[in-house]
Each structure stands twice: as structure tokens, then as C-alpha cells.
Amino acid sequence: MAGTFQYFWLFMLDFGGHLFTLLAGCVVTVILALTEKYLLKRKLSWLVELGILILFVLFACFQAWQDQYRSALTKDQQLAELGKPVFAGKIDDIGVAPGRRSGESIVTIFATVTNTGAQSIADEFRLSVTDPNGKTVQGEAIPPPMKGKDLRVQDKNDPRAIVPLSREDSLEQKAKNNPVAHNGAADGFLMYYVGLSQETIMIPGTVFKMEFEDAGGHPFMFGYKKTGFEKGFINQDNLQGEPQNQSH
What we know:
Layout lengths: L1 H15 L2 H22 L5 H37 L4 E12 L6 E11 L7 E8 L5 E3 L1 E3 L8 E4 L7 E4 L5 H7 L6 E11 L3 H4 L5 E7 L5 E7 L23
Helix pairs in contact: 1-3, 2-3
């Protein structure tokens, strides 16, 4: 019973929030009274005035119910989102180096994935590169280095400096072996062989697209569009992508 009265007072508080509707009913009643006196020259039944007031009170009640209904829908949606991972991604930097053969490059992606939904691993990272002419090439994943065998790449800020990359720095290892928690994030590097020359990849307009999956196999995507003639690492504004499909 106490809970019932608690909800009743919450309803009355919301109902009072629609004071404008109640005042509108009073104004209409006053206008009707003036119409009776100066235009119709006769008094209408008091039932008419009462009916108008009741109509506006009912409408205010409906508005209060509508507010609570929409609030409940929002909360249910938030709970539903917490029941599944909601990933987003960002490419922070890109390194490009000559590949194993002519017309091939090694592309190193430095990326961050965030998760505002339920805890999940991020797996099956895939890279595709589209050159300015519209040719799209799928990257061939390069496994992360063995433990104790660090890779060495050029520092984007100082070409004379070398940055070591270990197996523990790999985004694949971080996001697969350690599930990304709710409101958590994981960052690291990924490497691919790409069947485009280094010169082609460095042309402005080249688009890099990353795809990956959550624990349930649902795909997500994020991307980056090159906008300048940078050498080595690319560090321009990110082109944030939307998940391709987050429906369950």
C-alpha cells in the first residue's frame, strides 16, 4: 500500500508539471463565460463548462502518463544495450612501409576500440584499403611478433627514433585475450600486407577501413581517410565510422 501511494505522489508531481494544460482549460472556460454573456446573451449549462475542465484535466493526465511511458522505454532500451556489446573504433595512426615484393606494402594500424555495452572480446580484425581510383584491396594479416621478438618502427615525431612494438602491444592480443569491459577501451597495433604500393597508399584520398566482430560474431566498422602527402606515419583527422550492424 505504501508503494502505491509513493507512485501516486510521483504521478501527481508529473501531473502538476503540465500546469500549462490545466491553465489552458481555465482560459477556455473563461472565454466560454464571456461568449455566453456578450455574444449568446444566454447562459449555457454548467455541464458544458464542467465537461471542458474535465477534458483538459484528462489531457494533462494523459501527458503525465506519456512522460512516464517514454521514460520507461528509454530505461528499457538502456538495459537492452547493456546486454550486448556496443563497440566503436578509431584509427589513431597509420604506418606504411615497402612489402615483400614490388607493388606491396606493409601497413601498420594503430587503433583504439571502445565499448559502451556489455563486456565482450573484439576479434577477427580485418583491413581493406581503397585507393583514390576506387580500387579496394583486402589486407593479409601479419601475426603479432613472438614473445621477446619486438618489432621496430620509425617514430612519427622523430624519424631518427625507433619505437619497439611487442606482442603485448598488439590490439588483437589485448582485445581477444582480455574482454573489453563496459565503458572500457583497448588500444594497440595491427599489421597487414596490402597489395598496393607504398606510393599509391600515400596518395590523398586513400581510405582505410577496419572491421571486427564481438564475441557473438556481430560486425563493427571504423575508418580513416587520408588527406595529405604525409611520409611514414599518417596523423590527420579521423573519419569515424558507424557500426555496420549492431542488431541481435
